[in-house]
Design goal:
The complex is a heterodimer of chains A (about 475) and B (about 70). By secondary structure, chain A is mostly helical. Helices cover about 75% and strands about 0% of the residues of chain A. Classes of the chains: A mainly alpha (about 475), B mainly alpha (about 70). At the A-B interface, helix 7, helix 9 and helix 12 of A face helix 1 and helix 2 of B.
Chain lengths: ~475, ~70
């Protein structure tokens, strides 16, 4: 009889174990150590996440694909690439949150522990090759983020956003589960590759299978906030603490995308013609509605919420294409997108003072006169979000669109390019406000937090470096995608 | 109790319809898509699309119900 858990399995799951232990340690230290200043708990979390990041980077040099825990958990470079994105996002978010937690009197230990458990969930999702482990990861992430979104208990907007997210999340989980049940009923297995074998070729007309596919697309569509499942996102973004929002955009939603790509490419390759069309429609709806509605927003967090929706639309081009090039472009753009969007939210945190959120676009008025460096960094993030060279956003979009052209999706690319032009309008409005308007008489107070500066510097450095010198990371993304799509 | 604050029973009754409306909207979407597919011979495209829209409509109902709950609390 083989033992239930052996050491080789544990070694493969080492990054996840480090994150779990760090999360528990933070909770314990929070209770055990006395004193008012709890900022150092963030430091403990950053050290833990950095160790996990190091372990993941070491695994990238290992065998192409190793299975652990009786085939429930896979370590391949597709999972590793996404884990690097999630862990990098988490490090930046912890650094960003230090000041906010202090100013708003939030519980530092609980916040960091929940953030670490949410990160654990995203990592489990990236490594899931079985519907069961996928569901466990999904829920670990979701339950932690429900709590994080409602972290400001006394704030009405925060409570409302969190409640909407919770209810929609629970129902969407139900939808995903129903899809999984149908798949299991059809294939007799929860393993993704066993499902693919059971489906085989030429069973297009099985209505239960098609229904399962639609339910999974809808459920994951909710997780990545694809239109028409995006309704909760702007309210949640507006109400939730800004660091939490940065995490949602830079890790939690990308985790949804990671499982979407793996489940559809691995478990349902026989139905590619069907789901490719489904995602084509979702991608076009998502990017167009996201960009159009973003124009009308005065609150920058709401604007960035719609910008997130639009970017998820661009990212959905990857699963539409479904080729190795498409998946590689999704991986690269995920990394780029995480850094630039977290950076933009970091700028919102920089402008927040005390209990004033600083989340209106007008709060950026005259920032260039107050601090040219801060304005330049925001400009970098906005240019990257629009997709203008020499930023990473341009390279990412270029490869995403190139993959679609390569596969013959000319119309999709045309719509995406028009959408990029539309997005220029609302991103550049912030630039206009920063550079072309005079500083208001009361001035702008900027947060003074070394951790926040470090986080912004990290995000800006990745956004600029990947724009100028994307080669090695692109090559790694291509190699990582090889195991997913042939 | 203030007049504009619905009673707990009324709120519960309203919330208990959320589950039904989600499933009903999905079923209606599926039925429309299936029917149109049979008439137009486009199987399975319209079934897929309308089921998706049905689920989305169900979520929209849910979202509206929750929005109402929020206003009741304020």
């Amino acid at each position: 009889m083989t033992p239930l858990v052996n050491l080789a399995d544990l070694a493969l799951a080492a990054p996840e174990i480090v994150i779990t232990v760090t999360g528990l340690l933070v909770l314990l230290l929070d209770v055990a150590v006395r004193g008012r200043n709890r900022g150092w708990l963030g430091g403990v979390s950053v050290v833990g996440v950095t160790v996990a990041l190091g372990l993941v980077l070491r695994q990238t040099a290992g065998p192409a694909r190793s299975l652990a825990f009786s085939g429930l958990h896979v370590v391949d470079n597709y999972a590793n690439f996404f884990k690097v994105v999630f862990l990098l996002s988490t490090i930046i978010v912890i650094l960003l949150s230090a000041r906010t937690l202090q100013e708003q009197g939030m519980a530092v230990g609980e916040f960091n522990a929940l953030l670490l458990f949410a990160t654990l969930g995203t990592m489990l999702m990236a490594s899931a090759v079985d519907l069961l482990s996928l569901f466990v990861g999904l829920e670990t992430m979701a339950v932690s983020t429900y709590a994080l979104c409602g972290f400001l208990k006394g704030d009405q907007r925060c409570n409302e956003g969190a409640l909407k997210y919770l209810l929609m999340g629970v129902f969407s989980t139900g939808v995903v589960l129903y899809g999984m049940v149908l798949l299991y009923g059809f294939a007799g297995s929860t393993n993704l590759e066993a499902i693919a074998r059971a489906i085989g070729m030429g069973t297009f007309s099985n209505p239960a299978l098609l229904m399962a596919m639609v339910l999974l697309a809808a459920g994951f569509g909710f997780k990545i906030a694809a239109v028409p499942f995006h309704m909760y996102l702007p309210d949640m973004y507006e109400g939730a603490p800004t660091p939490v929002v940065a995490f949602m955009a830079g890790a939690a939603e990308l985790a949804g995308l990671a499982v979407l790509v793996r489940v559809f490419l691995w478990a349902l390759p026989g139905l590619q013609a069907d789901w490719s069309l489904l995602f084509w429609v979702l991608a076009v709806l998502t990017m167009t509605i996201g960009n159009l509605v973003a124009i009308a927003q005065a609150n920058i967090k709401r604007m960035l919420a719609y910008s997130t929706i639009a970017h998820m639309g661009y990212l959905l081009i990857g699963p539409v294409v479904g080729s190795q090039l498409g998946v590689a472009a999704v991986l690269f753009y995920s990394l780029v997108y995480a850094c630039m969007t977290i950076g933009a939210f970091g700028m919102v945190i920089l402008l927040a003072r005390g209990t004033v959120p600083g989340d209106q676009i007008d709060d950026f008025t005259g920032l260039a006169q107050r601090s040219p460096l801060a304005a330049a960094i925001m400009l970098l993030f906005l240019l990257s979000l629009t997709g203008i060279p020499p930023t990473a956003g341009f390279v990412g979009k270029f490869y995403l669109f190139a993959a679609a052209v390569d596969a013959g999706y000319i119309w999709l690319v045309l719509i995406a390019v028009i959408n990029s032009a539309i997005s220029l309008f609302y991103y550049m409005r912030v630039v206009m406000v920063m550079y072309m308007r005079d500083l208001p008489p009361q001035g702008i107070a900027l947060s003074r937090s070394p951790a926040l500066y470090l986080a912004l510097f990290l995000a800006a450095a990745v956004t600029l470096l990947l724009g100028i010198f994307p080669g090695p990371v692109l090559e790694f993304a291509k190699a990582s995608a090889a195991g997913i799509a042939g | 109790m203030r007049n504009d604050e619905p009673s707990v029973l009324r709120q519960l009754a309203r919330l208990s319809t959320i589950g039904v409306s989600l499933v009903a909207a999905t079923a209606i979407g599926l039925a429309i898509g299936y029917g149109l597919d049979r008439v137009l011979g486009t199987r399975p495209w319209l079934t897929l699309m309308f089921t998706l829209f049905g689920i989305a409509a169900g979520f929209l109902n849910l979202f509206r119900d929750v929005g109402m709950l929020g206003r009741g609390r304020r």
